[in-house]
Amino acid sequence: MNNITADTVRHIAKLARIKINDEEKLVPELSAILGFVGQLQELNTDDIPPMTTPAAGKTPLRPDTVAADASTQDILRNAPKQQDSLFVVPKIIGDNEPQ
Amino acid sequence: MTWHIKTEKNTWEVVIGLEVHAQILTKSKLFSSAPADFGADPNSQVNLLDAAMPGTLPVCNGEAVAQAVRTALALDAEVHRTSVFERKNYFYPDLPPGYQISQYQQPLATDGRLEVESDDGEKVIGIERLHMEQDAGKSLHDRGAVSFVDLNRAGVPLMEIVSRPDIRAPGEASSYLRRLRSLLRTIRTCDGNMNEGSLRCDINLSVRVAGSDVLGTRTETKNVNSVRFVVQAIELEARRQVDLLESGGEVLQETRLFDAAAGRARAMRSKEEAHDYRYFPDPDLLPLVLDSGWIEDLRTGLPELPRARARRFAEVLKLSETTAAILTEEPQNADYFEAVASGRDAVRVANWVVTNLFSALNDAGLGADRSPVSPGALGELLDMVDGGVISGLVAKEVFEEMWGGGGSAREIVSARGLEQISDQGQLEETVRGVLDANESQVGDYLSGRNEKVAGWFVGQVMKATGGKANPKVVNELVRKALESRRQS
Question: Any CB–CB contact under 8 A between B294 and chain A?
Fold first, then answer.
């Protein structure tokens, strides 16, 4: 699984919305990290259910009651731009909205 | 008989699976206490968590879980005691945290089923899975050089219901959606309002030569928001794929966006550009662990489901399958019918409700729960027909007046003197008058040239009495009067 290429690095950077210029340098670094973590693959985990959290117990459930903790002004306060109580964002080009 | 596309070269069949996103009916959002209502002012129903403010933590809405479990049970699915919330990572301006909390590897429920109507009768469509997730906010792109974001919808609870690729015809897809909607509305876990977006449908579709058991490359058509559009989108996409394959091309695995106004769809993105969501368990949320006793309580609390109700209407109340299906499509229609039918002749009530009430409701764009004529008021009207007080013909007229707010059946009938005339003496006189005025037709009857003319006389007498005569009595009197002229 440890076959990181410059293309892999570019793909990961794109997914994370990070701008990089030195992907060639990052290839060995990422490979080293994956190699280290890869040692875990050597363990046989066939009959062990995946552990999704180290904390014990189950998620607490809350009653279905409404309680506002912020006003429209509060929510928009940090917006770089707003208009008619809406966030204004750069025009979204293309339809890369998943469901 | 499967739905086929026949061309000069081949006969093709379609393989369809539907993914439905249904808004779970709750007061508050899935992980925050902000209200989940539709149509509020922009950004007025957003809690700090929904805007992904640092330091906030999600707490799961117990009622949203209960609603999803009810739905899974109503779909005969297996509800898992343990399920896991995961993060689905992608960047989009209407998704403040940069991830959607969803369920992936361990969904709430799997292996359900829904019966649909097909050309070969009832058919079972498998449900692969049902899981819970948050909705995203709403982006508005159609206003100039920038886009706008409203976060009211962000965090609203959704159930994603994924069918198996068992659907083989546009009709089966529309039946699936209508039955699912009816089920959700009956158990009150989603209001099923497609034009407000509380029920949205994506279509996975591929084509293959009929009889083949190989699956073709499929496309996904997104956000088709009415039953009619689902049928249109399926026909369109199936035809596009067939044309493509027959002209030597190949179908690309891509996401397409249906444009109802233009009646076409276009490619949104291909698989190469598809997102890599990097799902992983949400560290802010422990696994969702359900008590089996609690699940059983929810099962016991389910109301009678639409299919069971339709079967009961057919078997116990002796309605036709078609009538039973029409009556049970909307729960409030079935409730209305049952309220009127209680203690009355169910078949007659059903026919009256379907023919007269539903067409009036349809014209007015109302559900039976908002009918201006209450079940009690309609029952009184039907009792007057049964009791021979008014004729069936007059009943329709009275109904129209009741609909317009003219009062109760009894009030309208007595105010307008619409009581049926069953008085023999009075009717005999009218019959005599009609016969006297039409001697040549009497002759036709007596000479045996045309005995059907008796029916015409009945019609004339009904007309003369303004539809108020008891048709059965008139029928007898006309025949008696005609025969008596034979002897004289």
Answer: no
Residue A79 in any domain: the answer is no
Q: A29 lies in a domain?
A: yes
Structure tokens, B95 = 């998704």
Domain count, chain B: 4
> Residues 40 to 79 of B: which have CB under 8 A from any A CB?
41-48, 51, 59-65
Q: How many helices (H) and strands (E) does chain A have?
A: 3, 3
Mean pLDDT of A47-52: 82
pLDDT higher at B387 or B42: B42
Q: Which tens digit of pLDDT belongs to each residue from B306-347?
A: 999 999 999 999 999 999 999 998 899 999 999 999 999 999
* Residue B385 confidence (pLDDT) above 70: yes
Q: Are residues B227 and B263 in the same domain?
A: yes
B258 and B324 belong to one structural domain: no
Q: How confident is the model at residue A51 (pLDDT cuts 50, 70, 90)?
A: confident
Specify whether the CB–CB gap between B183 and B114 falls below 8 A: yes
The boundaries of the domain holding residue A37 are 6-41
- Neighbouring residues of B298: CB distance < 8 A, sequence distance ≥ 6: B66, B69, B70, B73
Q: Does B81 touch chain A (CB under 8 A)?
A: no
Q: Has residue A73 been placed in a domain?
A: no
Distance spanning both ends of chain B, measured CA to CA: 65
B77 & B187 share domain: yes
The residue-averaged pLDDT of B390-417 equals 85
> Does residue B387 belong to any structural domain of this protein?
yes
**pLDDT (0 to 100) of residue B486:** 78
As for how many domains chain A has, the answer is: 1
- Given an 8 Å threshold on Cβ–Cβ distance, is B269 in contact with A94? yes
pLDDT the model gives residue B272:
52
Task: Mark whether B379 and B428 lie in a shared domain.
Answer: no
**Residue B55 has which token pair?**
């330091």
Least CA distance to B266: which residue of chain A? Answer: A95
pLDDT confidence bin for B452, thresholds 50/70/90: confident
Tally Cβ neighbours within 10 Å of residue B280: 14
Residues B53 and B131 in one domain: yes
b/e per residue B33-60 (b: at least 16 CB within 10 A): bbbbeeebebbbbbbbbbbebeebebbb
Flag if A53 and B286 touch (Cβ within 8 Å): yes
User: 88-107 in B: which are within 8 Å (CB) of A?
Assistant: 88-94, 105
* Best of B32, B80, B139, B146 to mutate (most A CBs within 10 Å, chain A): B146
Q: What is the pLDDT, as a whole number, of residue A98?
A: 44
Chain A partners of B47 at a C-beta cutoff of 8 Å? 68-70
Q: Which one of A58, A65, A86 has the shortest CB-CB distance to B42?
A: A86
**Do residues B431 and B314 share a domain?**
no
* A/B interface, count of CB pairs below 8 Å: 148
A17 in any annotated domain: yes
pLDDT of B431 over the 60 cut = yes
Residues of A with CB under 8 A from a CB of B: 11, 15, 17, 50, 52-53, 55, 57-70, 72, 74-76, 81, 83-92, 94-99
